[in-house]
Amino acid sequence: ALGLLGLMVSAQVCLTASEYWLGYWSGLDPDVQSSKRHYLYIYVGIVAGTVCLTISRAVTSFLVLLGGALELHNGAFKGVLYASMRFFESNPTGYLFSFFFFFFGTDYNKKQTFLFPNICIFVHVSNCFTLIVHPVLVIDSAGRILNRFSKDQWVVDEMLPYVTYDAIQS
């Protein structure tokens, strides 16, 4: 966590240094600006350092957050798997789980065999829904952009109807 904080601070310092160096360089005489190339090399070095630190900061924060989420998920999953039946009978959510286990004829000791197929079905249905809805959203967005462009260009006839759904339905 301290390494991540150090990366964040150093990336911000590099970004500020690049802005400062660009301001310093542009404030010099035009003859000095164009005659000496080391100003450009210093600026490119600072920008390259900023890019490297920003990428490493993103990767490090992803790995730290992924590790924390994994620990949290494993702890919660272990707590549900090793919970006693008393919890499922006294807690309203646990009561619903035990009702569904009883309704589908699933053994209490095999909770994961009941949940896994249903989770898979949910993931597949949501993926199919995304594949159906996503092209419609892209077409609608493109239609709105083209309409806006045609209005900005003072074109009298419109390139596309106001809403692409009207064209699809007719």
TrEMBL record:
<keyword id="KW-1133">Transmembrane helix</keyword>
<dbReference type="InterPro" id="IPR011527">
    <property type="entry name" value="ABC1_TM_dom"/>
</dbReference>
<dbReference type="GO" id="GO:0140359">
    <property type="term" value="F:ABC-type transporter activity"/>
</dbReference>
<dbReference type="Pfam" id="PF00664">
    <property type="entry name" value="ABC_membrane"/>
</dbReference>
<dbReference type="GO" id="GO:0016020">
    <property type="term" value="C:membrane"/>
</dbReference>
<keyword id="KW-0812">Transmembrane</keyword>
<keyword id="KW-0067">ATP-binding</keyword>
<keyword id="KW-0813">Transport</keyword>
<keyword id="KW-0472">Membrane</keyword>
<protein>
    <recommendedName>
        <fullName>ABC transmembrane type-1 domain-containing protein</fullName>
    </recommendedName>
</protein>
<feature type="domain" description="ABC transmembrane type-1">
    <location>
        <begin position="2"/>
        <end position="170"/>
    </location>
</feature>
<dbReference type="InterPro" id="IPR050173">
    <property type="entry name" value="ABC_transporter_C-like"/>
</dbReference>
<keyword id="KW-0547">Nucleotide-binding</keyword>
<dbReference type="GO" id="GO:0005524">
    <property type="term" value="F:ATP binding"/>
</dbReference>
<dbReference type="InterPro" id="IPR036640">
    <property type="entry name" value="ABC1_TM_sf"/>
</dbReference>
<feature type="transmembrane region" description="Helical">
    <location>
        <begin position="116"/>
        <end position="139"/>
    </location>
</feature>
<feature type="transmembrane region" description="Helical">
    <location>
        <begin position="40"/>
        <end position="66"/>
    </location>
</feature>
<feature type="transmembrane region" description="Helical">
    <location>
        <begin position="87"/>
        <end position="104"/>
    </location>
</feature>
